[in-house]
Amino acid sequence: MSLRRRLLVSQQPLLISVGIAIVITAVVAPDVLRSHSFQFALVLLAALTLACVVVPWERYPPLAYWCIPVLDFAVVGGLYYEGRNSVIGLSFLAVFPVFWMAWSGAAPRRAWLLSYVCTTMLLWAPLFTQAGGFPAREDLVAPLLIPFVMFAMGVVISTMESDTTSQQKRLVAIETELQASLRETRRRSQLLDAVLETVDVGVMAVDAAGRTILMNSRQRINHALAGLHDGADTGSDARIYGLDQLTPVPLAQRPSQRAMREESFSDVIVWVGTGERQRALAVCARAMHEQGEFAGSVLAYSDVTEMVNALNAREDFVSSVSHELRTPLTSIIGYLDLVVDDEETAGLPGHLVNALQVAQRNAERLLLLVADLLTTASGTMHLQRSETDVAELVSVALDSARPRATAIGVDLGCDCEAELRASVDPARISQVLDNLLSNAIKYSPDGGKVTVRSRMEEGNLVLEVEDTGIGMSEADQRDVFTKFFRTGQVKKAAIPGVGLGLVITKSIVEAHGGRISFSSVLGAGSTFRVELPGSGN
After folding, report:
1. How many CB atoms neighbour CB 49 within 10 A?
2. DSSP string, 122-148
């Protein structure tokens, strides 16, 4: 409200109370209404009320309007002077200007002083105007309780006003902060909605009870494709299939149900939909917790159909080409074997025999490459386990690799236990050793040292191949077991290879129930470590 309106509202209680006093006086003592002091008080009250509205108080100092409550004491005094003997309690009308000044909070101590002084003056005024001279001490002291009550009321009201004002300021500050937080929350919510609707990934959030609390438009499309129209992934007839695109995924194994069991996972592939519209989705999930309690999960569904189809096409192509190459290569190697081993070939010139032997070696190398391609394309690994002395396999592998190492100046070292027995496929473990040794020698083009270590650790067979070659960068290390991957350093050095050796090695080790790991420093070499279960495992 404006200052004028506030002054008028503050004046209204006294105005209403005086109106009631006039009615009471008219009933009990109508002669009092005709007294000069009573009429003066009414005229002054009307003038002060009009001044509340007419005077532009905003132009004057802050406490200028206090002249109205101070003069209100004169109004109360005029009414009290003639009507005190007829209407009981007219002096208590002074409470209204006391309340006004105290509640304004502008100058509390001045308000207390004026409340006491003005109330005392209106009570003493009749004593000094009556006949008989100066009033007696008893007459002056008798009404002083009322000024003290007014003073106390002023103190209490000022304190309440101060507390109320402080609380109001705190509430205003809190409200301002809440409004700012609300605006920021709305801004972040709009930003989140914009991001969720922009990304080409389905996003879904569920609470601890499994209710969907967030889902973007992309995920709604995925849900519709899977036949889930109500947002819940609980229907038994949902079109959610495994990697073969035909077998329905059991309800308990669906990504959303796994997420509800507080599981966190990445890149789980499922197929949704049927026919030409069927899509492959890679699903990731992360659990949410509040104060240590499970609060739900967030799931992200990425459409990887094109990538999966491309990988399948590549595997089909590799498998088809490998099968097509294997037959003619087998025939070529067979005929070359016949020619090289034929007694009549002994009469051929030496350079022709050497040429035939080179052709034979290269054909055999191509056949091995085709076998590797078939192995990676099929994704299966058949083992023929037997109790084997792995130390002997290491010795044979070193003997086979020594000519290649000597040719490029690489020193082969062996730190192996004399006898290591394990239940393994000897041909496959020999392939692992040959691959690791071949890589170690091949990636040490400027010479150096390759060391093979074999031992038993806590019942497990451990094989290590360490080299001091070119090593790998941290970026290359992430893709070292990826099919057809070759590091940038290898490509620059023009070192031959197709990037399948380590992939096949990893498959063989994992088929044995073991694991392969490595450490590498660019320019300082690499160490590959194979751990296989021992005979007792």
Report:
1. 20
2. HHHHHHHHSSSSSPPHHHHHGGGHHHH
- CA dist., res. 208 & res. 259, Å (int): 10
Indicate the SS3 state at residue 238: coil
Q: Determine the straight-line distance between the first and last CA of the chain, rounded to whole angstroms.
A: 88
H/E stretch holding 406 reads helix 390-407
CA nearest 17: which of 85, 72, 68? 72
User: What are the pLDDT digits (tens) for 120-144?
Assistant: 888 888 877 766 667 778 878 888 8
Which positions ≥6 away from 73 have C-beta within 8 Å?
94, 97, 118, 119, 121, 122
**What's the CA gap between 386 and 495, in Å, rounded?**
36
- Which candidate, 95, 74, 93, places its Cα nearest to that of 150? 95
Would you state the pLDDT for residue 230? 63
**What is the DSSP code string of 245-296?**
SSSBPPGGGSHHHHHHTT--EEEEEEEES-GGG-EEEEEEEEEEEETTEEEE
The DSSP symbol for 20 reads H
Measured between alpha carbons, how far is residue 36 from residues 40, 44, 78, 79, 462 in Å? 6, 12, 9, 10, 120
Cα(279)–Cα(473) distance, rounded to whole angstroms? Answer: 36
Q: Which two tokens stand for residue 269?
A: 């592939």
Beta bridge partners of 482: none
- Residue count (the chain): 537
Segment 463-505, tens digit of pLDDT? 999 998 888 888 777 878 776 666 655 655 545 555 677 888 8
CB 531 within 8 A of CB 508: no
Q: For 497-533, give the DSSP string.
A: --S-HHHHHHHHHHHTT-EEEEEEETTTEEEEEEEEE
With beta carbons less than 8 A apart as the criterion, state whether 360 and 336 touch: yes
Residue 473 is classified by DSSP as -
Spatial distance between the Cα atoms of 527 and 507, rounded to a whole number of angstroms: 18
pTM score over 0.85: no
